[in-house]
Every structure is written in structure tokens, then in C-alpha cells.
Design brief:
The chain is α+β, with helices and mostly antiparallel strands. About 35% of the residues lie in helices and about 30% in strands.
Length: about 280
């Protein structure tokens, strides 16, 4: 087996695209992030991507777009250890990884031996796939609308607050992310009483699939069903557009959101763990 690393998205997809698409739901992050990079190469700085090839072809892949944790597909312990060997010189400051649990701990053990950095659990996630959509009942007041250029300041604030609350991203300038998503209708707002009260994002469509997120409602508007309504609205739009796989991730430490998405018709696919190297 051997790992190949590259900064070129097209080279990565040419080699590993079929492997990723064979389980497109489980590899949604890799597929949607690379699609975003193809559309706007400036969206992520210094991306690093790679795939492992063995006798049967590509068996594993990863991608890293700082400052986020690296995404790893499922892989056995030997392949994970070999990846750690490659990443110590290439990404010595790797902040963490997101992977199926067995893969994550195999990589973390190798990373500790090679880089001298221990892993801590930052988050446990569950991937959900939409089955039959069910709207919240009762449906809250208001209606959905696509965000536009006039919402940039609101989107900057809400994305920053979401990142702080979930510890997924520190407060930073989201202007590139906002511009990219506005270009394809990637933010939907639920508006009630004449003001926006909740937000749902959506990835670019790729291979018949979209991933919903982030979903955020400011504290003063919570408890009124707005998060469920805006998620249902985005989900319905995706289905109406012919999207075959509508996906989202939840934090397993948040029973409220996990129960909400099940009520909307989302069904669990797999669990993943996010580890931080400190």
C-alpha cells in the first residue's frame, strides 16, 4: 500500500473520486468540500488531500482544509499508521481529525508516537439521511426565504455565534464562505414577524447529494419551532430539485437536535468522532 498526497483537487478526484462516490453519504464532507474548492479555489487555504492505493485499488482517502480537522474515510490500523507517517512532515500542526471511531483512535495512537501529541475527544457526531420528510406540527409562524446580499452582516454574526457555541470554529471573518454560499442559494432564513429568526445552510449539490448545515437559531428565538421549520424548508427544496441524498450531521451531546431531526424524517447512517491534538 502507498499514500499519495496532493494539493490539486482534480488529481485527487481523478484518483479517489470513484472510491468516494461508492459510499457518497459517508463521504459527504470530502465530496462537498472538493466541489466547493473546484468552484472557488480561494475558499480554503492550503488544502491537502490524499488517497491510499493497494492491490485492489484505492482503499482510503483524507482531506485537510485548515483550520478544520482533517476528514478521514474508514481505514484499517496499518493504513492509518501509514497516513500518520506521511502527515507528520506535511502537517506537523494538524489540529485534529474527524473519522469513524476505530479509524480515529488508530490514527491517534500513531500520531502520538510520531508527533508526540495526545488526542482528546472534541465531539461525537451522527450522520443522518432524510427518509420521508415530516414538517413540524404545529408549524410555526413565518416562512422561509433565501438569504441574499443584504443579509451579509446577519450571516457573519450568526455563523460566528454558531461556531462559538458549538466550538467548531472560533470567531473569524466568514465573508468568503458567505459569498460562496450566496452564489448558489446556500443559506435559507426562516422569517417571522418581519425579521429573520433562524438559519439553515446547505452545501453545493454534488453527485446527487447535499448536506444541510449549519442550523442556527439565536437564543432569544429558541423554543418556538423555527429550527425545525427552516430545516424542513431546505430539505423540501432539495427533494423538489431532485436531490437523492439529503444529509446532515448532529452533535450526539445535543439530544434536542437529534430528536428534532428524527421527527423531521431523518434516519441515522453512521457515527463519527472528532479528536483534537493538543
Amino acid at each position: 500500500m502507498s499514500w499519495q498526497l496532493t494539493n490539486a483537487v482534480e488529481d485527487f478526484l481523478a484518483a479517489a473520486g470513484d472510491f468516494l462516490r461508492a459510499e457518497r453519504a459517508r463521504n459527504t464532507i470530502a465530496l462537498t468540500v472538493t466541489q466547493s474548492l473546484r468552484a472557488d479555489p480561494s475558499l480554503y487555504s492550503s488544502p491537502l488531500l490524499g488517497w491510499c492505493t493497494g492491490a485492489a485499488g484505492v482503499s482510503a482517502a483524507f482531506l485537510h482544509t485548515p483550520p478544520f480537522p482533517a476528514f478521514l474515510t474508514a481505514m484499517d490500523g496499518a493504513v492509518a499508521s501509514a497516513l500518520a507517517d506521511e502527515l507528520v512532515p506535511a502537517r506537523p500542526d494538524l489540529p485534529g481529525i474527524a473519522a469513524p471511531e476505530d479509524t480515529a483512535w488508530s490514527f491517534a495512537g500513531a500520531w502520538r508516537e510520531r508527533a508526540g501529541r495526545d488526542a482528546t475527544v472534541r465531539r461525537r457526531e451522527r450522520l443522518f439521511r432524510l427518509g420521508q420528510l415530516s414538517w413540524p406540527d404545529p408549524r410555526p409562524d413565518g416562512a422561509a426565504r433565501l438569504a441574499d446580499g443584504g443579509d451579509r452582516d446577519l450571516l457573519q454574526d450568526w455563523l460566528s455565534w454558531f461556531g462559538t457555541e458549538t466550538e467548531l470554529a472560533s470567531a473569524r471573518d466568514f465573508s468568503q464562505t458567505i459569498a460562496s454560499r450566496l452564489s448558489y442559494g446556500g443559506f435559507t432564513l426562516w422569517q417571522a414577524g418581519g425579521i429573520p429568526v433562524s438559519l439553515a445552510g446547505q452545501s453545493r449539490a454534488v453527485d446527487g447529494m447535499v448536506r444541510i448545515g449549519p442550523v442556527y437559531t439565536p437564543p432569544e428565538h429558541r423554543g418556538r419551532g423555527y429550527s425545525g421549520a427552516v430545516t424542513a424548508a431546505v430539505s423540501q427544496s432539495a427533494v423538489a430539485a431532485g436531490i437523492g441524498e439529503v444529509l446532515l450531521y448532529t452533535d450526539l451531546a445535543n439530544p434536542v437536535s437529534n430528536a428534532l431531526y428524527r421527527r423531521l424524517g431523518y434516519q441515522p447512517v453512521e457515527d463519527r468522532i472528532v479528536l483534537t491534538f493538543g
